[in-house]
Amino acid sequence: MTQPTLIRGEHERTACTLAASGVPVLPLQAGKVPFGNCRRCADNACGGRPNMKTPGPCACPGPCHAWAAATTNPHVLTSNPWRRAWQRASAVAYHPGGARLTVVDLDNADAIAWARKTLPATRTVPTTRGEHWIYWGAMPSSNAVRPGVDIKSTMAYARWLGPGTGAMTELPDTVRALAVRKPSTVRPAPRAVAVPAVVGGGECPHRTPTYLDRGITMAEQRITEAPNAIHATVYRTFLAVLSTHGRCGCLTDTHIARLFTAAQAKGESPRHCTDAWTNALTQLGL
């Protein structure tokens, strides 16, 4: 057996050991990069974000959605699609939030010095350039909370670099406060975007404009009240509107702009809005 095969086998064994202890794991390619979307999920077809921050309604058998694919299921980890991924993997990663953990990623000596003065001691894992400080408890992830400091917990992955040393401490409020963003005093206005036209010309089943307006209002409300998975919600909402109103030509630019404005108010970028709309059109064959 060649040395590369031995290394790849070691990654798979490490992953299975971590999974058995309740830590969701996934393989990483060279450069600490997760495996990208399969063809079925490319270009947002499944409703997940292209940057894989939000899992879509997807049942991929392989590690297709980065942190969202992380699993503790030994049958999944050793299935053929995952085995093929392990054969190409260069490292093991894990989803800290899925194990109720938070990783404070300290990227340089200055960040480490700041942590030693500011944060309670906890389990420490050496990294290539700094240290991971690991706490019990999950929280929202956030990058660049201060120079050289990232927080990795929910909706994020961290590279597995060993068990580390020291006793693990409960997640302190000091760390939670790092991820709290100050509210902006001025909210930028939604940007205008070019929207692919809807195919019209079919028989219109809508007797009055009230029916369509009610549908758009309900769609706006669904997007506005979504607590999470915003991109997937936007995609599904666009899909529902187009499946009802997309073939008869009733939708106007004003209706579409209302949907895009609601999505952008929830943090969607104009490009993600356009992508979700285009994918919905494609899904319905419009």
How would you summarize the topology of this molecule?
Blueprint: H1 3-20, E1 25-29, E2 33-34, H2 74-77, H3 80-88, E3 91-94, E4 101-106, H4 109-118, E5 123-126, E6 131-136, E7 142-146, E8 149-152, E9 158-159, E10 169-170, H5 173-178, H6 209-224, H7 230-245, H8 253-265, H9 270-284
Parallel strand pairs: 6-10
Antiparallel strand pairs: 1-2, 1-3, 3-9, 4-6, 4-8, 5-6, 7-8
Helix pairs in contact: 1-3, 6-7, 6-8, 7-9
Structural domain count: 3
The shape is: globular
Specify the structural class: alpha+beta
Q: Compute the gyration radius: what is it?
A: 23 Å
Q: What distance lies between the first and last C-alpha atoms, to the nearest angstrom?
A: 53 Å
Descriptive report:
This protein folds into 3 domains: 3-94, no CATH class; 97-178, no CATH class; 209-284, no CATH class. Helix content is 37%, strand content 14%. The protein contains 9 helices and 10 strands. A hairpin with a 2-residue loop joins β7 and β8.
Salient structural properties:
single chain; alpha+beta; 286 residues; 10 strands; four-stranded antiparallel β-sheet; six-stranded mixed β-sheet; 3 domains; 9 helices; 14% strand; disordered N terminus; 37% helix
Give a short summary of the structure:
With 286 residues, this protein is of the alpha+beta class. The chain has helices at residues 3-20, 74-77, 80-88, 109-118, 173-178, 209-224, 230-245, 253-265, 270-284; strands spanning 25-29, 33-34, 91-94, 101-106, 123-126, 131-136, 142-146, 149-152, 158-159, 169-170. Helix content is 37%, strand content 14%.
